[in-house]
Amino acid sequence: AACLTSWQQRYDQLSAGRFDGLFEEFWFGRVQLFYEELNQTVHQSGGAWPGTRTFAVPVAIDGTGCFGGEVYTAHSMLTMSGETELDFRTPPRLKMLACSVDSEALRSFAEHVQRDVGAELKGRCVVPTTPQQISALGALLSAMMSNLQAAPELLQHAAMRKAIEQGLFETLLDAASAMRAPSAESPPSLR
Predict the structure, then answer these.
(1) Does residue 179 come out as left (phi exceeding 0), alpha (psi in the -120 to 50 range) or beta?
(2) N or C: less crowded end of the chain, CB within 10 Å?
């Protein structure tokens, strides 16, 4: 839990056995990109840094988990604001890519490119997506992570940081548009 910079978190392991995990993060501009891998069921509580919006996608998941009282699957996008209390239960095995971005920077970018962020970015939710939508966001986050692992010096250049940030913001706005699309089936809730 302490590995995630600027978050206040607590992890409680719920399943028996030895815990193995992996965590990596990169910061650039107003973006925190991170990867987390867990081999046990864990309850995570706490929250992100204030003024942010976090988006997460499972890249490998064994079963389902629970986020804010809603069940999530391999085809769910998770999102929450920095002002929302984290309530996240993982399945027995989870690999996840996520990013936390400055909400105001994302809104400003949306206005600049004449895109609507909308009210759907308030609070916390599990967003059912199509395999294509979740794949596009997961592929971008994965490519960013791989490129930064291979060449972290890319972040030394302001123009590169800005280009990475803008590419991410564009993909996040596309993902957010999925929140407006009516879903044929609502996700199950534990509330």
Answers:
(1) alpha
(2) C
What is the layout of strands, in order, in the sheet containing 70-72?
A: 8-13, 42-47, 86-89, 65-67, 70-72
* DSSP state letters, 92-126: SSEEEEEEEEEHHHHHHHHHHTT----GGGSSEEE
What is the residue-level pLDDT of the chain in tens, covering all 191 positions? 778 888 999 999 999 999 999 999 999 888 999 999 999 999 999 999 999 999 999 999 999 999 999 999 988 899 999 999 999 999 999 999 999 999 999 989 988 887 766 555 565 588 777 788 788 889 989 999 999 999 999 899 999 999 999 999 988 887 777 555 544 444 444 44
Using DSSP's 3-state secondary structure scheme, residue 78 falls into strand
Coil, helix or strand for 135?
Answer: helix
Single-letter amino acid code for the residue at 174? D
pTM: 0.86
Q: Which residue has the tokens 């993909």?
A: 171
